[in-house]
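Private note to self, pasted from the team thread so I don't lose it. Backbone tokens:
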């Protein structure tokens, strides 16, 4: 009576198993790599907005502080999106007939907020509070990059868990005086290490690596 499987079946079976395992491991590995490269993290992605807003002009030319538009950045978890009324504080007088601002005026008359598109997206299971960072001496530029050089806002930091932990393990090199929080070009005078330690003591900044810090 002949065997149900030929002797070479064992070899073929082993090859199939090896291919399946390698494929599964490769898929997981590829996904882990993708989640850490700019294409996966969303860095340098050009995000279209309903209104063309040039941060270079508003920050550099008009010297508008970040907190003028993002009014809750030092008071709440969210930095805040500027309401249409705030835009019209200036643009009811400046460029008040420009077609580029048609949507802003339509928003005002319809009493309907402009639907801005989110650029920095954190997962829902991650807790982040702007106010605690700003009030502890972490400048806007540390996470958002040189906004004053961006015609349109894009994400410059990976916002991965590892990136956050790099700062949470050793926050002192990234601290600055509170009066320089929104200054995009600020550089420390003297010894930056000594200044960082001094500011950490002044603002009571300590390493935060507990899971509960970000996952609540």
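Design output:
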């Amino acid at each position: 009576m002949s065997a149900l499987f030929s002797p070479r079946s064992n070899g073929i079976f082993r090859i199939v198993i090896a291919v399946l395992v390698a494929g599964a491991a490769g898929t997981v590995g590829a996904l882990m790599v993708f989640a850490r490269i700019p294409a996966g993290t969303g860095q340098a992605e050009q995000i279209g907005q309903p209104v063309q807003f040039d941060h270079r002009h508003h920050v550099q030319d008009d010297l508008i502080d970040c907190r003028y538009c993002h009014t809750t950045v030092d008071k709440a978890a969210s930095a805040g999106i500027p309401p249409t009324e705030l835009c019209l504080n200036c643009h009811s007088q400046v460029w008040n007939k420009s077609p580029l601002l048609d949507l802003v005026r339509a928003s005002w008359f319809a009493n309907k907020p402009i639907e801005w598109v989110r650029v920095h997206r954190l997962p829902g299971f991650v807790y982040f509070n702007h106010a605690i960072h700003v009030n502890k001496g972490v400048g806007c530029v540390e996470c958002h990059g040189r906004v004053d050089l961006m015609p349109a806002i894009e994400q410059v930091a990976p916002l991965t868990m590892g990136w956050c932990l790099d700062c949470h393990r050793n926050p002192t090199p990234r601290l600055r005086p509170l009066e320089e929080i929104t200054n995009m070009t600020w550089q420390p005078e003297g010894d930056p290490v000594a200044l960082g330690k001094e500011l950490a003591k002044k603002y009571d900044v300590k390493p935060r690596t507990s899971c509960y810090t970000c996952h609540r």
